[in-house]
Amino acid sequence: MKRIIFSLLVVLAGINVAIAADADAGKNKAALCAACHGANGISASDAYPNLAGQHADYIIKQLKTFKNGTDRSDPVMAPMAAGLSEADMADIAAYYSSLPRTPTADAGSASAGGQAAPAAVAKYEPSAIAGKSLYELGDASRAIGACIGCHGKDGASEVLIYPNLAKQHPAYIEKQLHNFKANKNRTNFAMNEFAKHLTDEEIQDLGAYFADTAAVANVKVRKIMTVAITEEVKAGEAKAATCVACHGQGGNATVTLYPKLAGQSAEYIVKQLTEFKNGTRKDPVMSGMAAPLSEQDMVELGAYFAAQKATAGNGKGSDAGRKIYFGGKTTLVNQSITACVACHGGTGKGMAKAGFPSLANQSVEYITSQLNKFKSGDRANDKNSMMRKITVALSDQDIDDLAQYIASLK
Ligand code: HEC
Ligand code: HEC
Ligand code: HEC
Ligand code: HEC
Fold this sequence. Notes:
There is one protein chain. By secondary structure, the chain is mainly α. The chain folds into four domains: 8-98, Cytochrome Bc1 Complex, Chain D, domain 2 (Orthogonal Bundle); 126-216, Cytochrome c-like domain (Cytochrome Bc1 Complex, Chain D, domain 2, Orthogonal Bundle); 227-306, Cytochrome Bc1 Complex, Chain D, domain 2, CATH 1.10.760; 319-406, Cytochrome c-like domain (Cytochrome Bc1 Complex, Chain D, domain 2), CATH 1.10.760. It is built from 22 helices and two strands. A two-stranded antiparallel ribbon has the order 1-2. α8 packs across α12 (200-211) and α18 (319-327) packs across α22. The chain is elongated, with a radius of gyration of 23 Å. The protein binds heme C (HEC) (4 copies). One heme C binds next to α14, α15 and α16.
């Protein structure tokens, strides 16, 4: 097993230092950096990343990493960082994070399809729209989490250790994704896992997207409900009569042992019914219920429940649960828990098109039972063992905390 280093301690140390940071002093200390990263933290060359507007915590973490050479190695930055004290790093980070990130000089050409190809060889034309789709939806079939879960809407991340990606040089983004993919020069559990499955073309699409996320800000990657689905919803309502006994009126189960289906994604419901029927997901009650359903029945039931509004869950909330949900966890035994937010989203609504279920409004009891079932392998219908790999490293206490937190999400 790979050694996983994603230490929250490093980050916390960064935050402590950042409080005492002095951006004016940082400006002076950054004089040397301007040669490559530009006078205002916007670099003129594709080879150097923009630093303006980046989170200070993230900058500090990278400088420390370059300095100690553990998770990131770069022949240029290692000697640059070697001479910096913690106070220098904090000041410089405060300075760069205070600067606005204006569009990069090459942003326009990249989002319009990359630089002109000088060679006769046909060059791949990157698509910012394809990049945006992958960014927002991920790809469940290849265990690629949706990037938006960590890096935020349009590449502006809300979590300080997750870098902002908007208005970054495409060539730099591509180089980093290749580094993560090859697990060479740069180590980060989540990023190495996701990048592993990205194709060269997808990496270029992502680069084009980040160069100027605003250019495709209005492109909706999610399908909008159509009239046809409304008819399915009606048909589904009639067929859902037998489900009420356990899943409640409108899919709002009142007995906490039974999952709520209201507001759950239609794709996910169809997948579960199909798998209860064919035995991939085992439950004596549900396999009996699913056995007589046709594919069309399942689609209609999915459409009906997806369109219902869920009532609030019974969770009390939990700070410890929230931490794991947003930050994942590194255990002492070489195992890492990917942050739940990556796939289930910031408010627990999941990502329908990627096959990630909504967890919001669900009951503590049901969430607990499913986490335990994934952990023991009793439930094994998650593609690529996505949930089994994560739950195996969760303690009983972690599961209690997560269930209390998740069931408090609305
Ligand atoms: C000679 C050119 C050069 C100079 C001078 C330089 N850098 Fe860099 N910097 C780079 C390159 C190249 C990279 C990308 C390394 C990689 O590919 O991993 C980089 C990356 C970084 C990153 C990581 C950015 C990210 O988005 O992950 C930070 C932070 C950084 N530099 C800060 C500094 C600071 C602070 C200074 C001044 C003390 C400095 N650099 C001076 C070339 C330079
Ligand atoms: C679970 C959270 C998470 C998800 C999901 C995620 N990332 Fe990241 N990403 C990170 C973290 C954390 C880092 C910083 C790693 C480090 O400290 O070196 C990072 C770094 C990066 C970087 C390097 C940025 C820089 O300035 O050097 C790029 C590019 C990137 N991610 C792209 C993506 C793409 C594309 C996806 C979707 C396929 C994605 N990320 C999904 C957490 C995530
Ligand atoms: C007698 C009680 C009962 C009835 C009636 C019932 N279910 Fe269920 N259902 C359950 C139980 C129990 C589970 C949880 C199984 C587990 O623990 O894996 C479940 C789970 C599900 C799930 C998976 C939910 C999730 O979040 O993963 C779906 C979808 C579902 N039922 C749909 C239906 C539909 C549609 C009907 C009506 C045709 C129906 N059920 C009727 C008891 C019932
Ligand atoms: C890489 C993506 C990914 C990550 C990260 C992830 N999940 Fe999941 N999760 C899934 C998928 C996919 C399913 C549905 C599996 C299936 O098709 O039955 C799922 C299902 C679940 C379910 C069952 C939902 C239901 O209605 O039965 C729970 C509970 C859950 N996840 C909790 C978590 C928690 C807690 C974390 C973080 C510790 C987490 N997940 C992290 C992808 C992910």
